[in-house]
Design a protein that fits this description.
Length: about 850
């Protein structure tokens, strides 16, 4: 049945996953009610898109008739594409020229008359034009470009189709030898989409393979690894299928989910497998081993789902839709992990895995011994460990304050990536590819058909052009000045606004071109200034926007309401979204997890003790970000909540074992040490798996994926170190102070010390007891004696193998002196109680001691 359920999950999930929609377009990252989105929609109803794909050509004979005809043919071919609104090049750019009776509007270079002029003459016409230089032609004459303006696009697939169509048209026009690159929002979106696909196809299989290999190393058996592989696919496929079925796109954010859920599935499996391995080591048979492992791990596993899910669901407080989808889908996946590992995997182990698992020779055994050593070091030097941690945090605090908020799509790629090199080339030859739209709204119809209003707009535009980040600014003022210049025999002195409203109205009546009405609507109530910026990051764009707003506040345009939109504004608003989202999501995750931990332990003090070591990895993530200059962006904003939700899982397992041993009467030191040896093996193994898989992502060429992998791996490593070193010290210090609400007498009572009485333990190694599991009991007793330093003959415990001690049918049997008490049918849990309660605590374990009823 479990196999059928797994198969159904994989089949249904895989079916829906086939319909997954890949879309990393900028539009999906903004809430539909964001001010910048609403303004963008308003502008698109009246003006064409500010999104442009700039395609650059370089080489010999750029101004020859032959090359220009090919360029014109390319423009014509692209104009007919269903995704293209307009294509502008030197043969289609409007030129306002003077005539005998006024002015006319015609192409800058008419394709039908190219052969009538020499290359030098054509070049001169282009470079002397007001609009072509630095837009369609480089000022040095070495480059020409076409500007492809698409219809409003909302999908990465559309931009990919457009870029593919442009490439095909370039080949068809025979211009490939001159092509040197393209740039703009289309190119950036396509490059991100390709990187997301490459990472998914490369790293998901690789992280799964490495995870399974590490799982085999720590478990030491092949069949549990194969079952683990089935469990992973039973989690990942339904989660991705759910994203597809809900109609949500697969973005840069959600692309991290397959690797994350695969790693989390393996981590949960390892906790369960560690319980099975401990039961095997205690001599329990297959079904009893699985039952005992479920008893030990299912409850903390359920709380792991709650805490990890809470961390992921806190991402709903980040007002960026793909991050919210990541959080919800991730939380759904963690529920699937719990169901799969604790309800579907056990029946498969019972049916297909019948061999005893190795213990000391497996990686899990090695991890247990390492965890024990770290915990013992912490217990021996608690004040030094806690003090060292505090000093380290204080010393590194200045670095954590250096974290900056920044999203820069070009910075998502390495400097030698084609997008980076081509964008740099195009901006060096032409102008910046980041656009801003300054929206200007007058008081009513024809309110902008006014010379005084246009003069104030002209002054504002000139101020804009003086800003270092602005390469170019274009508005209706430029075209009206060209009309006045052309009407006055193209005299330079007349390249200005007309002197009165009557002349202005006459010019607008004569004008029969297209360009003007892309900058002002036909009611002359709303206009826009289009800016080309040479900055790409949110910080740089935000500074420009803030400066513009301050200038407008100090010198408002009379009768005109100003607002700022465009792709640049949308991108810049991410700063506020990221900061607000980081604060909200972390606060939400912390609060939810603290409440859950308080309910679990029924103590806010215990919850605080558990959560303190898990705040440290978040702190050191920000320290690393500050030290390396990694910014808070769309990828790194998810790390804090994610790391907090994952690292707290291991703490739950460790503290759960510690509390259970205290309830059983074990001394605090023993309870801590034994819990960290027992659960620590799985904790270290899961951390190795998670750290290895996330560190692998750091090898990605796509910087957001690389940063996410690196920082998550560092956070998990720091969390592991603090759990194994700082948490034992905190528990010991807190225990010595006494639990909250205890009386002064109780708080002052010292905890039982280790090895304060002399004891001798005889362990029966007769044939019947050996068959019942005495060898495993002996190994456990020997290992614990060595680990807890109970080896001093004067004050510690002496252990001795013996032959038959008497009650053979009750084996394994051991006898403890000086009391002479017999313990029978001792398993791993039993020997742990004997060590903790009798050898360490000095109290006979009545439930295990031989009594007349048990000997009967």
């Amino acid at each position: 049945m479990a196999l059928l359920i797994m198969g159904a999950l994989q089949a249904v999930g895989g079916f829906f996953a086939l319909g997954l929609h890949l879309n990393n377009a900028p539009e999906v990252y903004y809430p539909s009610d964001a001010p910048a989105v609403l303004l963008r929609d308003e502008l698109r109803r009246e003006f064409p898109s500010d999104e442009v794909l700039t395609v650059l050509f370089q080489g010999d004979k750029l101004y020859s008739a032959g090359f220009l005809k090919r360029l014109d043919a390319l423009a014509g071919a692209l104009e007919g594409h269903p995704l293209v609104d307009r294509v502008t090049t030197v043969t289609t750019l409007e030129k306002i020229s003077g005539t005998d009776d006024g002015f006319s509007v015609a192409p800058l270079l008419e394709s039908s008359r190219l052969k009538d002029a020499s290359s030098d003459e054509l070049r001169r016409r282009v470079l002397e034009d007001r609009f072509a230089p630095d837009t369609l032609a480089s000022s040095d004459g070495t480059s020409l470009a076409i500007a492809v303006r698409p219809k409003p696009l909302t999908d990465s697939a559309q931009r990919l189709a457009l870029k593919t169509a442009v490439a095909a048209a370039i080949d068809e026009a025979g211009l490939r030898p001159w092509f040197v690159g393209d740039a703009g929002p289309v190119s950036m979106d396509v490059a991100q989409l390709e990187s997301v696909l490459d990472d998914s196809l490369s790293f998901v299989p690789l992280t799964v393979a490495i995870g399974l290999l590490l799982l085999w190393w720590v478990v030491g058996r092949v069949r549990p690894v194969l079952i683990g592989a089935m469990a992973m696919s039973s989690v990942v496929l339904p989660t991705i299928g759910a994203i597809a079925a809900s109609g949500q796109p697969y973005t840069m954010a959600t692309a991290i989910l397959p690797s994350l859920l695969a790693a989390y599935t393996l981590a949960t499996l390892l906790h369960f497998y560690a319980g099975v391995q401990r039961a095997h080591a205690a001599g329990l048979r297959r079904n009893r081993s699985i039952d005992r492992a479920l008893t030990e791990t299912r409850k903390p596993g359920a709380y792991n789902v709650l805490t990890t899910g809470a961390g992921l669901l806190s991402l709903l407080l980040v007002p960026i839709p793909p991050v919210q989808v990541f959080g919800v889908a991730g939380a759904f996946g963690t529920v699937l992990v719990f169901v799969t590992v604790f309800f579907l995997v056990p029946p498969m182990l019972r049916r297909w895995d019948t061999q005893r698992w190795p213990s000391r020779s497996s990686g899990m055994g090695r991890f247990g011994r390492l965890a024990s050593r770290l915990a013992l070091f912490s217990l021996r030097h608690p004040k030094a460990v806690i003090g060292g941690a505090i000093v380290l945090c204080v010393a590194s605090f200045p670095l954590a304050t250096q974290v900056r908020v920044e999203s820069d799509i070009l910075a998502f790629f390495k400097p030698d990536h084609p997008l980076s090199t081509q964008t740099e080339l195009i901006e060096s030859k032409l102008s910046g590819v980041t656009s801003l739209e300054i929206s200007l709204t007058g008081s009513g119809r024809d309110s902008l058909k006014n010379v005084d209003s246009l003069r104030s707009i002209s002054d504002f535009q000139q101020w804009l052009e003086q800003q270092p980040e602005v390469d170019r600014a274009v508005s209706m003022v430029d075209l009206i000045e060209e009309m006045h210049w052309a009407m006055n025999d193209e005299q330079a002195a007349f390249r200005a606004l007309p002197g009165n409203d009557r002349l202005l109205s006459q010019y607008l009546l004569v004008y029969d071109g297209r360009d003007l009405y892309e900058l002002v609507n036909r009611d002359f109530q709303r206009a826009r200034i289009v800016l080309s910026l040479n900055v790409h990051g949110t910080q740089g764009i935000s500074q420009v926007i803030e400066r513009i707003r301050e200038r407008n506040k100090a010198q408002p345009l009379p009768g005109v309401e100003m607002d700022i939109g465009g792709h640049g504004r949308l991108f810049a608003d991410q700063v506020d979204l990221l900061v607000q989202g980081q604060l909200n999501s972390f606060a939400g995750a912390f609060l939810q997890i603290f409440i859950l931990m308080t309910l679990l332990w029924r103590s806010p003090v215990a919850a605080a003790l558990c959560i303190v070591p898990n705040l440290a990895p978040l702190f050191f993530v920000f320290v690393l970000m500050g030290a390396t200059g990694i910014p808070l962006d769309l990828a790194t904003v998810m790390i804090a909540s994610l790391v907090l939700g994952i690292t707290i899982d291991d703490t739950i397992h460790l503290y759960h074992g510690y509390r259970n041993r205290l309830k059983a009467g074990a001394a605090p030191v023993f309870a801590i040490a034994r819990s960290f040896e027992s659960s620590g093996r799985a904790v270290l193994a899961t951390s190795l798996l998670l750290i290895a898989q996330f560190a692998l992502l750091a090898a990605s060429d796509f910087i957001p994926t690389s940063n996410f992998g690196l920082l998550t791996a560092v956070g998990l490593a720091a969390g592991q170190l603090f759990e194994l070193l700082v948490l034992p010290a905190l528990l010991l210090v807190a225990r010595r102070r006494g639990p909250a609400g205890a009386s002064p007498e109780k708080r002052a009572a010292p905890a039982p010390a280790i090895a304060i009485q002399q004891r001798r333990v005889l362990v029966c190694r007769g044939r019947t007891c050996n068959q019942a599991g005495a060898a495993a009991v002996w190994r456990r007793l020997r290992d614990e004696r060595r680990r807890l330093d109970l080896h001093d003959p004067a004050t510690g415990v002496l252990i001795t193998k013996t032959s038959c001690l008497g009650p053979c049918r009750l084996g394994p049997v051991l006898q403890v002196f000086p009391e002479g008490v017999y313990y029978c049918r001792v398993d791993e849990a039993g020997i742990d109680r004997v060590i903790g309660e009798h050898l360490v605590g000095g109290r006979v374990v009545g439930e295990l001691a031989l009594s007349p009823e048990r000997s009967a």
